[in-house]
Structure prediction request, 324 residues.
Amino acid sequence: MKTKLPVAGLIFLIASFSPLSVDAQKLATGGRRTVSVTIDDLPVNSLRNDVTTQTTITRKLLQAIKSHRVPAIGFVNENKLLTNGERDERRVTLLRMWIDANLELGNHTFSHPDLHRTPLETFREDVISGEEVTSKLLNAKGRTLRYFRHPFLHSGNDSETKRKFEEFLLERGYRVAPVTIDNSEWIFARAYENALVRGDKQMVKRVAEAYVPYMEKKFAYFEQQSLALFGYEMKQVLLLHANALNADYFDKLAKMIKKRGYEFISLDEALTDKAYTFPDTYAGPAGITWIHRWAITAGKSDDFFRGEPLTPAFVMKEAGVTAE
Ligand SMILES: [Zn+2]
Prediction:
């Protein structure tokens, strides 16, 4: 986030993204806030790998998504469809539940490797392995597999790897699914589940009660960041995971989001915002929001990135995580 990358032609690009007046902001956003909900690590990211628990989590999460009419997209790791190394139809059924709820699925690689620690060729093969079941399920509904989400939001530690991998995705017909409202919901989820498994009801409650207020601070921060960079509140893309925390609290989260004046939109619709055409030349170790990638590309100073809400220390401790 501290790197400055001057880019040729940037003056022209910044000029075309100059801050807008309040009226123009309303025009640009249609006078409303919009967000696309994207959910990673399908079918389920949980310490509890038994099919019964995973089915309960999926059912509750989808119930909450449906009740708020959220056109969410789920990103699949097909290695989570295996039991003892064999494809388990009961786990494939979990993906079918998403399809039957009329939700879209995307590819999140087969085994969630880290592009920054994996040879590019091996990583590409993992993307291809991750297509098999998901594309069949989508094709049966007359849909195709169109979106790719980078594990850890790692898109390449160096420009060469980033460029080559982007070319590969394009050739295979993928569009990258960016994230603008990045957050550490995964740390809350780990803390929540650790406390659940340990039977510490008080800690379960404490983590859960801190979750939605924390997410609201993240929304406020990225609304401001969008305004500061583009002069209007863009169509945002939120990152969440398919986990027990969201199975239990997506309803409360969705209510908070609606209360802020948001309407839920599909990823397709979010990406019609011209902000997503802004160049992203960031190559480096961090898995960060696209808003900050664009800000780095535009040469913003360190001041621009200040004020991002942090995860409370007790949540970090319960999750056993030392760095966000
Ligand atoms: Zn993931």
